[in-house]
Amino acid sequence: MTDKREYRMEELAREAGITVRTLRFYRERKLLAPPRREGRIAWYDDHHLARLRTIAALLERGHTLNGIAELADALDHGRDVADLLGVGGPTEEEPVRLTPEELAARFEGQVTPENLAAALDLGYLGTDGDEIVHISRRLLDVSAALVREGIPLADVLAAGARVREHADALAEIFTEVLLRHGKQADLPRLRPLARSVVEAELSLALDRRLRERSDRRP
């Protein structure tokens, strides 16, 4: 196992490609966690270096220091990935690990403190050290695709919250039916069948809605 590396202030600034003065400024703005103190010496580690590199990447993408501070605060108060995924973890959805700058690149200009907080509250995102974990690659890819189509991320997240309520109700219906007939052991095998019913019904519902909207047009 590799020992955790530690840096003095001058070493950390050099590794991050910034000046000591800038590092002090970031520390004063509380963009960095406090260093470990050993007498009068402040020791920084790789978590501090990762945060500095994230700050640099976000600044390059047009984020302000105030915005970065708010993003950092939201992440620092986000749920740990262990709480997000639970003991067993998702059975079908694949979690995705991202750095904060990679997340910002997926949703160019729309990873605001408000949107980040909404995604954390929904349980889409969790934190694991300096990494962010999205609970579902499919949801991440679809959300990014919708944003590229011109739908604001805030609206995508709001829709996700509403869909979550209906999805929980649908899951309860199928779980109740299967348990009523003693099929608990078969839940993993029958799960794709339940999902297929929901997908087909959603497709039919979209057909109906589109026809209704088309009929209303003058």
Order of helices and strands: EHHEEHHHEHHEEHHH
pLDDT below 50 for ≥5 consecutive residues: which ranges?
none
> Structural class of the helix and strand makeup?
mainly alpha
- The strands making up the biggest β-sheet line up spatially as 1-3-2
Q: DSSP strand (E) fraction? A: 5-15%
- Per the principal axes of the C-alpha atoms, what is the gross shape? elongated
Largest sheet: 3 strands, antiparallel
| Distinct helical segment count | 10
Overall mean pLDDT: 84
Distance between the termini: 70 Å
In helices, the fraction of residues equals 55-70%
What is the number of strand segments? Answer: 6
Describe the protein.
Strands 1-3-2 form a 3-stranded antiparallel β-sheet. A 3-stranded antiparallel β-sheet has the order 4-6-5. Helix content is 62%, strand content 10%. It is mainly alpha-helical and 218 residues long. The protein has 10 helices and 6 strands, in the order E-H-H-E-E-H-H-H-E-H-H-E-E-H-H-H. Strand 5 (125-128) and strand 6 (131-134) form a beta hairpin.
Could you outline the blueprint of secondary structure elements for this entry?
Elements: E1 6-7, H1 9-16, H2 20-28, E2 36-38, E3 41-45, H3 46-60, H4 65-76, H5 81-85, E4 96-98, H6 100-106, H7 113-122, E5 125-128, E6 131-134, H8 137-148, H9 153-180, H10 187-216
Antiparallel strand pairs: 1-3, 2-3, 4-6, 5-6
What key phrases describe this protein's structure?
218 residues; mainly alpha; three-stranded antiparallel sheet; 62% helix; 10% strand
